[in-house]
């Protein structure tokens, strides 16, 4: 695994995009987020090291650290190794995964709502599911029911928030458009918050999955994460800041048409959309009844299409890491090799470092864990 690079604090957004003078509470919040990010998820650092890295005085670091220890975000955990064996060894600080909890909910799976009580690292402590009938529409009452069941086994005072990963365009807690759920302008955060007394963070499921890959996978601070599941969606990380777009719809690439003239008809009304060409359902339908050579040819074409679709983005953003999450029968070596070969052919130059296309290794639960991480990030920014 590549060494973890600590995430940067997200920039402070202000109305109208104008810069304003930071208040003392803003400064304290940013310092708190900065220090936590230097420890999350598994780094151990002393107060002196945090002072050197951040440029904050030791007094300022100690003030913030002491408050975070009292809150349950971090803990003292062992001592530095002193190479010469002389002098007092510094106390190390790490994230405290045990005292505070998050409730994570994943709405991205077919006919299933998955939930868990997690620790601050998104590790599930208690897991539950609600299975839906094949033709049933997901209602928010089912989400509230699942949260209620999960809360029964944990102290309410330890829960810092509820995180929900939902497919589609998510903006400010509202699911603006989700074809998979059949929702439009559903204010999910407000609906759930009206029932419970903790903040609710709603995140696009692909963005949430990207958080999991960033903190617990192989990714660094620059990444394009692509999810091939019910549909196709992407999330982009640039210098550890998610690129969500002007209307929070960045990454909704499933209905970009790659072959608008002769491609398959899409339910959206266009032809040749990515989902109809390389979506998991479309590829499985195409491969049904074919022999091994036929399946290989279909996946080879799919990987080639995929690389052609993202090549322009690689040139624009200069990202060296493309992580693809999807079922093993689709996102396999045939698909990835074809994508790598086409991307190399389209982007190779003396000034562009080779972009690697790889399969995500995180497995099941990736969106749920990302929803929990989103809660932790929001908690740091808003407290």
Task: Describe the protein.
This protein is of the alpha/beta class. The chain has three domains: 15-95, Orthogonal Bundle (Arc Repressor Mutant, subunit A); 101-210 and 365-382, ATPase, nucleotide binding domain (Nucleotidyltransferase, domain 5, 2-Layer Sandwich), CATH 3.30.420; 218-359, ATPase, nucleotide binding domain (Nucleotidyltransferase, domain 5, 2-Layer Sandwich), CATH 3.30.420.40. Helices cover 36% and strands 22% of the residues. The chain contains eleven helices and 16 strands. It has helices at residues 24-39, 47-54, 58-71, 140-151, 188-193, 205-216, 274-278, 280-287, 292-317, 333-347, 366-382; strands at residues 45-46, 74-79, 91-95, 101-106, 112-118, 124-131, 159-166, 169-171, 174-178, 183-186, 200-204, 223-228, 232-238, 241-242, 321-325, 356-359. The strands form four sheets. Strands 6-5-4-7-11 form a five-stranded mixed beta sheet, with helices on both faces. Strands 14-13-12-15-16 form a five-stranded mixed beta sheet, with helices on both faces. Helix 1 (24-39) packs across helix 3 (58-71).
């Amino acid at each position: 695994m590549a060494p973890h690079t600590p995430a940067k604090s997200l920039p402070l957004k202000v109305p109208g995009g104008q810069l304003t003078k930071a208040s003392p509470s803003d400064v304290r919040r940013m310092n708190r987020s900065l220090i936590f990010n230097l420890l999350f998820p598994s780094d151990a650092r002393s107060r002196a090291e945090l002072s050197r890295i951040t440029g904050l005085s030791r007094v300022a670091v100690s003030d913030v650290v002491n408050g975070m220890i009292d809150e349950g975000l971090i803990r003292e955990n062992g001592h530095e190794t002193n190479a010469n064996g002389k002098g007092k060894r510094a106390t190390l600080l790490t994230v405290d995964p045990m005292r505070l909890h998050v409730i994570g909910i994943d709405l991205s799976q077919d006919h299933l709502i998955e939930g868990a009580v997690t620790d601050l690292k998104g590790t599930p402590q208690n897991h539950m599911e609600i299975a839906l009938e094949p033709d049933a529409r997901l209602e928010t009452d089912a989400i509230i029911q699942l949260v209620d069941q999960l809360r029964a086994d944990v102290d309410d005072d330890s829960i810092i928030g509820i995180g929900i990963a939902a497919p589609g365009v998510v903006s400010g807690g509202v699911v603006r458009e989700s074809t998979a759920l059949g929702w439009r302008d559903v204010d999910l955060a407000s609906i759930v918050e009206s029932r419970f007394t903790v903040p609710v963070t709603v995140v696009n499921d692909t963005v949430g999955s990207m958080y999991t890959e960033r903190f617990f996978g192989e990714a660094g601070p620059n990444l394009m994460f692509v999810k091939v599941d019910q549909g196709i969606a992407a999330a982009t990380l640039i210098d550890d800041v998610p690129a969500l777009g002007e209307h929070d719809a960045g990454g909704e690439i499933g209905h970009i048409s790659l072959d608008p003239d002769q491609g398959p008809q899409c339910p959206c009304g266009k032809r040749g959309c990515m989902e109809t060409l390389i979506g998991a359902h479309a590829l499985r339908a195409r491969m049904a009844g074919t022999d091994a050579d036929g399946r290989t040819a279909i996946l080879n074409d799919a990987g080639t299409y995929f690389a052609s679709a993202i090549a322009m983005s690689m040139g624009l953003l200069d990202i060296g890491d493309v992580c693809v999450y999807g079922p093993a029968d689709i996102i396999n070596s045939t698909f990835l090799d074809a994508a790598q070969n086409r991307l190399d052919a389209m982007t190779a130059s003396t000034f562009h470092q080779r972009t690697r296309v790889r399969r995500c290794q995180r497995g099941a639960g990736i969106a749920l864990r990302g929803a929990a991480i989103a809660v932790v990030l929001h908690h740091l920014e808003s407290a």
